[in-house]
Amino acid sequence: MIPFIYHDPQSLAAACLKIDHTDTMAIGGGTTLIDLMKLNVLTPKEVIHVRKVLPSTVEMRDDNLVIGAACTMASLADHTLVSGKLPVVRQSLILAASPQIRNMATLGGNLLQRTRSAYYRHTDMPVEYEGKKKSKSENSDADAFGDGVETSLLALLGNNGKLVGMYPGDFAVTFVAFGGQLVLASPNGERIVAARDFYQTPKDSFQYTTALKPNEVIKELRLPVTETLKNSLYLKIRDRSSYSFALASCSVGLQMNGNRIVAANVGIGGIASIPWHSAEAEQALVGEIASDETFARAATAALAEANPPSGLEFKVPLAKNTIVRALQIVRNQGPLTDEQLWAMQHGRG
Amino acid sequence: MTNSDGVRRRDFLKGVSVAAASSAMVVAQEKEHGSPSAGKKSASRSNVKISRSNVKISLMLNGKKKAFDIDSRTTLVDLLRENEHMTGTKKGCDHGACGACTVHVNGSRVLSCLTLAATIDGEQVATIEGISDGETLHPLQNAFLRCDAYQCGYCTPGQIMSGIACIEEGHAEKSPGEAREWMSGNLCRCSAYPNILAAVRQTAGAEPISDPAMPMSRKTEEAL
């Protein structure tokens, strides 16, 4: 780790004045920052501790769940406003990382989690693959999109035809799917940005960028508490039962009138450069009968633009089936209890 | 452990690690001074001299107040092992992937390898060294012995610290699936998972106290 100067500011205003997100970075729980600083991927000259100057409370305000950015993943998941009330929020938190990491990680930092791709995490990985474009010649194996590249943690959606890193987080998928908003604080005051606008797919970079400007810090998260949020599920498919990043995941919520879908929310994780909101899938669901055929059409619409690098073709049907299965569970069973969730994750007959 | 020349294994390793750390520092400084091979990620750092920076913190460490003057880069696991010579807490992956370094901060289980020590100034830290009452082991330590819940033992301090928190959180006594899920942040490469699960569940009172390796008929009798 490169030496840095550590600051424990007395106020959020004092913290914002210093933080530029390049030379001077904010530290919350440190679960991403310290990891990447040990790898010399991030090399700030100064580190500003923001956990104590940011709010960490959780409350209801005007039908919005308002979450202080310093609230930990564990505290939010266990909060009385969340546990047993907003299934997809709790599930996308407790199926992420491990209990230890969830006790440390703040929500503000969690939203800014970096890609896990080796091309980002290891400075000695060959950089010539970064930004490699899709080949025009379909028949040439040597020119195949991503051939010879370690593609496992690259993006299929929102890659703009390039080899770019996949966004690995879980909660942010729920946050974009259900129309969350961020309150960004700076010395000039506060502004509100929709989560769907906050994340920007990579154009010239290897991974996503955000709307966060120098001297701005995520202060608060707001999530509208809708009927779909109450009748919801986070389904996460991984290589092992727990403590693993998603191969594919989705946040879904349905509001029903009889067997007809009145409102729907769909987000997808593990396959896109940003936490992915699928307006296409929602459009295919709203106003329709909640049949398996409708769900299949929504899944097809969600993945229509998928552009898988070599070796990731399997993720297209995997993501589609994940969406269909999640929608079926919500339709057939409604919100799952924790006990049903463990049975699904660790079911051994 | 002492060899014929009277050099203790730990002292020898200390010498080696100082040498390794020094060479790592040289590499870091070469990179900073902008050699062409340093690449794009350190380009903006060329010609900038950065020297070590220290911070002063205090911790309630296993109930005793301790003051430290440490390099700002010091993580909690390094503070425990290198500054305090408390080597019970293990460094496994050093990247938050294995759980071997699990300790409690203010009663919650956390990863000491990703905890920057400066960020927990004034807070309470509990480690594996602090959980027994003198020679009387913590019930979960006894359960690990009884259930043979380890082979090499390297993950054990982290498993026990995580297990104590898991039981206190109430995640150990309901279904085995829930206990597995809430212990999943601690990897065991010897794969002693069934025995670890038994030790945690027995200590939580969810299963009768017994040695999982014994035939059912003998279990209760011999355990008593």
What can you see in these coordinates?
The complex is a heterodimer of chains A (349) and B (224). Chain A is 30% helix and 21% strand. Chain A is an alpha+beta fold. Chain A folds into 3 domains: 5-49, Uridine Diphospho-n-acetylenolpyruvylglucosamine Reductase, domain 2; 58-115 and 166-224, Uridine Diphospho-n-acetylenolpyruvylglucosamine Reductase, domain 3, CATH 3.30.465.10; 227-346, CO dehydrogenase flavoprotein, C-terminal domain (Enolase-like, domain 1, 2-Layer Sandwich). In chain A, strand 4 and strand 5 (64-68) form a beta hairpin. The longest helix of chain B is centred in the first third of the chain and has 24 residues, at 9-32. Chain B has a 5-stranded mixed sheet with strand order 2-1-5-3-4, with helices on one face. Chain B is α+β, with helices and mostly antiparallel strands and 224 residues long. Classes of the chains: A alpha+beta (349), B alpha+beta (224). Chains A and B meet through helix 2, helix 5 and helix 14 of A and helix 1, strand 4, helix 4 and helix 5 of B.
Question: Into which percent range does the helicity of residues of chain A fall?
Answer: 25-40%
SSE pattern of chain B, N- to C-terminal: HEEHEEEHHHHH
Helical segment tally of chain B?
7
Gross morphology of chain A: globular
Number of strands of chain B: 5
Quaternary structure type: heterodimer
Strand order of the largest sheet of chain B: 2-1-5-3-4
Proportion of strand residues of chain B: 5-15%
By CATH, the superfamily of the largest domain in chain A comes out as CO dehydrogenase flavoprotein, C-terminal domain
User: Which regions of chain A have little confidence, pLDDT < 50, spanning 5+ residues?
Assistant: none
Kindly report the name of the CATH homologous superfamily of the largest domain in chain B.
[2Fe-2S]-binding domain
